[in-house]
Amino acid sequence: MISGSSDKTTRQWDLKAGKEIEEAWGVCEGMVWAVAVSRDGRWVVTGGGDLNGELKACEVETGIVKTFKGHSDEINCVDISADNTLLASGSWDETARIWNLETGKLVAGPFKSVGWVGAVRFSPDSKKLAVRLDWGTCLEVWDVQSQKLDVRIGKPGGRGVTLTPIFWTNKNKTIIAAFEFSFPADPPSDLDDYTIYEFDAATLETVGAPFEGHTKFINGLALSFDGALLASASNDNTIKLWAFESRQLLASFNFTR
Prior knowledge:
The chain is mostly beta strands. It has no helices and 22 strands. The strands form 6 sheets. A 4-stranded antiparallel β-sheet has the order 4-5-6-7, with no helix packed on it. Strands 8-9-10-11 form a 4-stranded antiparallel β-sheet, with no helix packed on it.
C-alpha cells in the first residue's frame, strides 16, 4: 500500500506486517493530497502542493520522477486509466486534466468545471471522465476524446471541497458517489453528503435505492474489484459495508476518536 500525507512524503507499507517497507519518499514540496498506483505497478503518482499544484509520477523500477505542469493551484485528486497509459488530475483551480504517463504531456483538457474538483475517475474503457465537485453537490461526466461535457447535475457549493472518491459500475453505465441534492443558502456547520447514490452515467439520473445509514458526511468510499461490496467511512465515526446490488447493510464498525 502507498500512502501520502501532509508531512510532504509518500510511504510504502507491507499490508500483512503493518510496517513500512522502506524509507519515506520526499516527493512533493507541499502536502500530498492524493496518491495512485498503476495496475501494472510501474507508476506511483502523487498530487498536492500548496498554492502551486504539484503533480508527479515516480517510475518504481528506475526511481525516475516526472513532473506534470499546468495546474495553477493545489491538486486534490488523481486517477490512472485501466490500461496504465493516462493520468487524470483535479485541482482547486476548477479544472481536470488528462496526461500521457509515458511522455508527461497534456493530452486532454483542461476541462473547465464550475467548482473545486474533489474526485476524478476514468471509466473502465477510458472514454469518459467522471468529476465530483465541492461538497458533493455537483457531478460531471466528460468525453475524453471530444473534450466536451456530456452531462452535469447539481450546483457548486462554494464552501470548499471533500475528497471522497467516485466509482464507475455496471460496465461503464453507472457511477457511484456520495452526493447532496439539497444545498441550503445558509448551510449548517456540518456537511450534508451522507447518502450514496448510483447515477446513470449518460443522464446522471439516480438508479435504484440510495445507500442510507450514515448521519454525517462521508469521507471515504471503496468498491470491491468484483463490484459486489461497497465500503463507506463517515464523520459519524462509523465504517459501513454494503451489498451493492441489494443495498443491504452487512456490517457497521464504530470507532472513537
